[in-house]
Amino acid sequence: MSDQKMDFEKSIIELEKKIEELKKFTESKEIDFSEEIKKLEQKAELMKRDVYDKLSPWQRIQVAKNLQRPRTLDYIQKIFEDFIPLHGDRLFKDDTAMIGGLAFFEGAPVMVLGLQKGKETKDHIYRNFGMANPEGYRKALRLIQMAERFNRPVISFVDTPGAYPGIGAEERGQAEAIARNLKELSGIRTPIIVIVHGEGGSGGALGIAVGDRIFMLENAVYSVISPEGCAAIIWKNAGRAADASAVLKMTAQDLLELGVIDQVVKEPAGGAHRNHEQIIQSLKVIIRSSLKELAGLSKDELVEQRYKKFRAMGKFLETEQ
User: Fold this and answer.
1) N or C: more exposed end of the chain, with fewer CB within 10 A?
2) Is the same domain home to 151 and 16?
3) 160-171 pLDDT, tens digit each
4) pTM of the complete model
5) Taking a C-beta distance cutoff of 8 angstroms, is the pair 40, 18 a contact?
6) Could you tell me which residues come within 8 angstroms of residue 126 by beta carbon, excluding any fewer than 6 positions away?
């Protein structure tokens, strides 16, 4: 059960507390309330599905930011075997917001990388709240190019509010580092699978999200700007973030319709933060099927299809002068 309270979850949390209290009473008094508990659990399950099926874009953003959701390292540790983290961009330093390294997926060698947020205050600060500096994107590119040399597929996990906007990051070439990643990843001759599992913030996310298959968790978000930033620009009022979230088309369902992603990954009832194991198993199935599908393509076909995929995004109107 999540410890982070969201207003729309109040009825769910209250019912879950009643279930927990009844279980404790059963243990302490040795009275069998199993039938009552079972009925309440079924009711809670239906309530979670009903509430989460009707979430607004702004509410989905709250879920995407929930501190109890699995982080990138949680997925790496539970999905892959023998993960060996690699560090540094060979130019400046290591970026703790960007993690990556060698691993095996069901016995097959892969390269995994992703943006890592913290779970507690000290960890948040250590990971810079999941906001990578230029050295993070250069490290990611170094690892992806290594994967290409050794014919290892790349699995990239995205969860960031955006690239770090600090002066130091700008001085060290933040925009150039992200732009170079976009260019180089477009032509990498090895399969790239992207999973947006939390926040997908602007170029900070896109810097590691150019891939052959792009998946989003049901309650993840992915957009060119934060709702707060958008509201501040359009209406000069960051307080209208909820309005901005509705027009930004940043939910998984919106982006599937727009052709930006390939598939929405269904989350457990009540969100991924309520059942880590179930969402991990779902991602295993998706990674397995995607690797099998992409293995059937030649390197030339892989790059050509990736190019066409991204060129097909958006709509353009050409007129003659």
Assistant:
1) C
2) no
3) 999 999 999 999
4) 0.88
5) yes
6) 96, 118
